[in-house]
Structure formats: structure tokens, C-alpha cells
Design brief:
The chain is of the alpha/beta class and 280 residues long. Among the domains are: 30 residues, no CATH class; 129 residues, Cytidine Deaminase, domain 2 (3-Layer(aba) Sandwich), CATH 3.40.140.10. The chain is built from seven helices and 14 strands. It is flat, with a radius of gyration of 19 Å. The N and C termini lie far apart (57 Å). The relative contact order is 0.14.
Length: 280
């Protein structure tokens, strides 16, 4: 038996709990995972209908932000002026209408139509194709300058915003900070890349890109596609509670991003561009 809670993102399920040799019937709260179909309509095609661009598995909620963030990460849109309309039909579909000046050809994007919640880059046939297709921004400036205490303070602030994780233990989170350590935006999702797309999409819809003076903290590990999304949004600092992959480190170095991992227990590792961290 499954029962939805007040939040669309969490359900209560019946379970058998085994302790030693004893078994009892109980309930547990789990994160919702459902497909979201992203449909796009080009403004250049008069009378054109919405066409399926991608289907991603995600936690319901902030669907418009997720769709916009995903299209931004894919290089379809660059800012708010590229969007004519973005509407969720409440049936796991988001329709995004593009302005006339936006060039959009769905057949030119080398991605399978289905994307799992666990990986945002698996649909790409090659990383080389992804690199060439996307506009990767490099950060020449050595700002912002951040103290170790600033970085140490981030995990507790992120943890205080993880409401779904408190209920289920089954979601990832992305949290955007200003250089004073204030939380600006937090999103949760069963998919790491979805949580980040929701944050970036939310900032785009509020016309707050690029994120050149922001710091993003991730609740899990850092893989290549998450660094790619940070580069697209011009984030100078990307930090994570978990570990980075080798390719994430390489891309962060190439893009001038300060990549920080294992931010927990009053310690962290700086893998690239450490000049932004003020050391004694």
C-alpha cells in the first residue's frame, strides 16, 4: 500500500521490518520518483506543436525550474529572454515555448529520449561530443575569495534545508550561497543533476544568471556533468560533501572553477584553482 503525504515528493509505504529473527509490519516514508516529459516548441515554426525533447526521472516539484535548467544545461537557451512560455500541465509534462530568435533543432542533440535520475550524461554517446556541443565558460578572475571557515559552515546550512531527506533519506540536494554565506536557493531531488538543474532553472527564471559571485554546495559526489552545468552558469566555486571524479577535476581545472570535495567534519579538499581560498 502506498499513500501520498502532503508534499508531492514523499509517499508512505507499508513495509516489513526485520530485527534479528523478529518481523513486524510498519510504514516507511520514501522519495517519489516519476517521469517528467519535457516538450519544446520553436517560435520560428508558425503553428508548430510541442515536440518531446527529453523524459527524465525526477522527484515531483519545481518541474518548470527543472525543465528550464535542463534546457539551459543543454545549450538550448541562454537566459530568460529565450523563453516565451513555460507551463506545467500537472500530468508530468512541462511545455516550453521558445522565442523566435532561438535556434532549435531537436535532431541535432545527441541524447537518448530517456534520462535516468541517477546520471545526467549517460545519454551522451561521447564526452567529446558533449564538450563540443556545449558552451563551456572559463573563469579568469580569482574571485570570490573565501575563508576556510566559510566553507566549513556550508554543510550544516545545507542540511537544515533538506526536508525531504529528513523524511526519507533518499534525496540529493543543491544549495546556492552568496559570498556572505546566506542561502539563496535550495532544491532536492532523487537525481543529483536534477537538483542542480532545479536551482539553475530557478535562478534563470528570476533573471539572476550568470552566477559569477555564487557558491554551490552539493550533498553528494561531483561528476563531470555537474561541473559542466556549473561552467554553463559561470559558477566560480563548486563544493560537495562527497568526492569528485577524475573527469570532474579535469573539467573544473580547464574552466577555472574552484572544485572542493569532502566538505564535512571541519575539513575539505581543494582539487582545482585553490587561489580563491584564503589560507593562513
Amino acid at each position: 500500500m502506498t499513500t501520498r503525504m502532503e508534499r508531492r515528493s514523499v509517499v508512505t509505504v507499508e513495509t516489513k521490518t526485520i530485527s534479528g529473527l523478529n518481523s513486524v509490519t510498519s510504514t516507511d516514508k520514501v522519495s517519489v520518483e516519476e517521469p517528467l516529459e519535457i516538450r519544446v516548441r520553436s517560435g520560428k515554426e508558425a503553428g508548430s506543436s510541442y515536440k518531446q525533447f527529453s523524459t527524465t526521472m525526477r522527484t515531483p516539484g519545481n518541474d518548470e525550474e527543472l525543465a528550464v535548467g535542463f534546457l539551459f544545461a543543454e545549450g538550448i537557451i541562454a537566459d530568460l529572454s529565450d523563453i516565451d512560455e513555460c507551463v506545467s500541465d500537472k500530468c508530468n509534462v512541462v511545455n516550453v515555448a521558445l522565442k523566435d530568435h532561438v535556434k532549435f533543432d531537436s535532431t541535432s542533440f545527441d541524447r537518448h529520449s530517456f534520462v535516468s535520475s541517477s546520471c545526467g550524461v549517460c545519454g551522451k554517446r561521447t564526452i567529446e561530443a558533449l564538450r563540443m556541443q556545449q558552451q563551456i565558460h572559463c573563469h579568469a578572475a580569482d574571485t570570490p575569495l573565501l575563508s576556510p571557515d566559510f566553507i566549513h559552515s556550508l554543510p550544516d546550512k545545507l542540511r537544515s534545508c533538506q526536508l525531504d531527506f529528513d523524511s526519507t533519506g533518499g534525496t540529493h540536494a543543491s544549495c546556492l550561497f552568496d559570498i556572505n554565506g546566506n542561502i539563496l536557493n535550495t532544491k532536492e531531488d532523487v537525481g543529483r543533476h536534477n537538483a542542480m538543474d532545479k536551482v539553475i532553472g530557478s535562478e534563470l527564471l528570476q533573471n539572476r544568471l550568470p552566477l559569477t559571485d555564487r557558491v554551490l554546495l552539493l550533498s553528494g559526489r561531483v561528476s563531470f556533468e555537474l561541473v559542466q552545468k556549473a561552467a554553463r552558469a559561470k559558477m566560480p566555486v563548486l563544493a560537495a560533501v562527497g568526492a569528485p571524479s577524475s573527469l570532474a577535476i579535469q573539467l573544473a581545472e580547464d574552466c577555472g572553477i574552484t572544485l572542493i570535495g569532502f566538505v564535512r567534519s571541519n575539513r575539505f579538499n581543494v582539487y582545482t584553482n585553490p587561489q580563491r581560498i584564503l589560507l593562513p
